[in-house]
Amino acid sequence: LKEAAVSLSGSACNIACARLLSDCGELSAACLAYGLFNLLPLSMLDGGELFVITLAVCGAADRGRLAARRAADTVITAAVWIFAVYLALNGVGEGLLISALYMVFSGVCKRRT
Of 99, 100, 105, 106, which is the most buried if we count CB atoms within 10 A? Predict the structure, then answer.
């Protein structure tokens, strides 16, 4: 329960800051986007820790948790990558593309260790 609280605290602070900064349009949107992005169930983000904690509470075996975590990493990273490339090709911005590259390389390096 303590680990879940720690994992949620960062995103909760970002979402609270977005609410406090609601008059500052782009800054508020950036805080909210960062807070929600951090909740994605990827192993390198806080949402990944919450995903593993949820699986443990539900009684999943260690092998099942590892398989579920790898599947979630692969599927969500691929979806974010496709969406990021789409946005970059349409000139919306490259920020998400850089984050997606980080997620891909972080996942590859983590599996090698």
Answer: 100
Crossing angle of the two packed helices 62-89 and 95-112, in degrees rounded to 10: 150
- Indicate the pLDDT class of residue 104, thresholds 50, 70 and 90: low
User: Considering the entire predicted model, what is its pTM?
Assistant: 0.65
- Here the tokens at position 110 are 């983590």
The CA-CA-CA angle for residues 81, 39, 88, to 5°, reads 25
Band of residue 110 on the pLDDT scale cut at 50, 70, 90: low
Distance CA 17, CA 64 (A): 36
Tell me the H-state helices in the chain: 2-20, 25-37, 46-57, 62-89, 95-112
What tokens were used for 35? 């807070």
- Cβ 65 vs Cβ 52: under 8 Å: yes
Q: What is the CA radius of gyration of the chain?
A: 16
Cα distance between the two ends of the chain: 28
